Prior knowledge:
Enolase-like, domain 1, 3-stranded antiparallel beta sheet, alpha/beta, TIM Barrel
Amino acid sequence: MDTSDLLNLPVYIEDITHNRLAMDTSSGFTRVTTVVRCEGTGHTGSGEDVIYDADEHEYLPEWHPELPLPFAGTVQSFSQLLDNVSLFPSSPDRAEYQNYRRWAFESAALDLALRQADTNLASGLDKTFNPVTFVVSTSLGEPPSTDRILSLLEQYPSLEFKLDPTPDWSDELIEQIAGMEVVRILDCKAAYHGTDFGYEPDADLYRRLLESFPTAIIEDPGLDEETLPLFEGHEHRIAWDAPMTSLESVRDRPLNAGWLNIKPSRFGRISTVLDVIEYCYENDITMYGGGQFELGVGRSQIQTLASVFYPDGPNDVAPRGFNQPTVIDGLETSPLVPPLSQVGFGY
């Protein structure tokens, strides 16, 4: 995969602006993100900062990093410029926020470069857009039940799901969900150390999941002396997400897992995302796209990456209407139809 033409696209940035978005989600919290806009030659390119801490978004509309504007260069030289620029007025609470914000700026610059060249991501890589299969990621509530799944299936009978199993999933609940045969991914969230939404390794839960969902992908399980033996012979079902933040981490992934959840914001740099995708192609690692509760252009961009690189995976890139507490009728169902014509980094 030759990515040099894309990275060497010229880009001219006259100004950078921001605006904040917010939405109540089906997981019971208010999601806040910031859209970063790069403007130049009458065009606007956009990216989305998906940091989960709402406080980190408060100052962005009034604060600008010390970027020398106007900027004239390439997508790659803009990325190199960001190496020497702080995108925060002070150090963020979590290290991964650096990549999340960097991705917003890099994707905005790429979007602008593609628009200024009157082209799109697929054409820039000499590839094509393809229909995108997707799954819906949803919470099961407190206490967990099948109500949300049943409600969604009543509206959209063909849906498939990515679910986050928790230690309080009973045998009865697991049996009910497994019997529906609609679960593609079970996200154990054992890699979210120091957060409010991670879980410790749980051998009993993992054993029940492996037995009850024999074809489901098991994402981000916690590995210790009790859980590690459970995954012997199931390495092809393991997917990594949160621990994957660089090409090196993908090369060193535990258990030589067969799946990778591609979330570009975790990698920060466009060049790194493309390098990781190429490595997966070359080493028979199956990919699918992952979402971060994007509220704006970021959702379209992860759908675009899925369309070009891994359209047939269980992509967690459903239209954002599926993340709302009340899901309306009329949402696009899987597979997402690719655009007939498109300019920029979007779908």
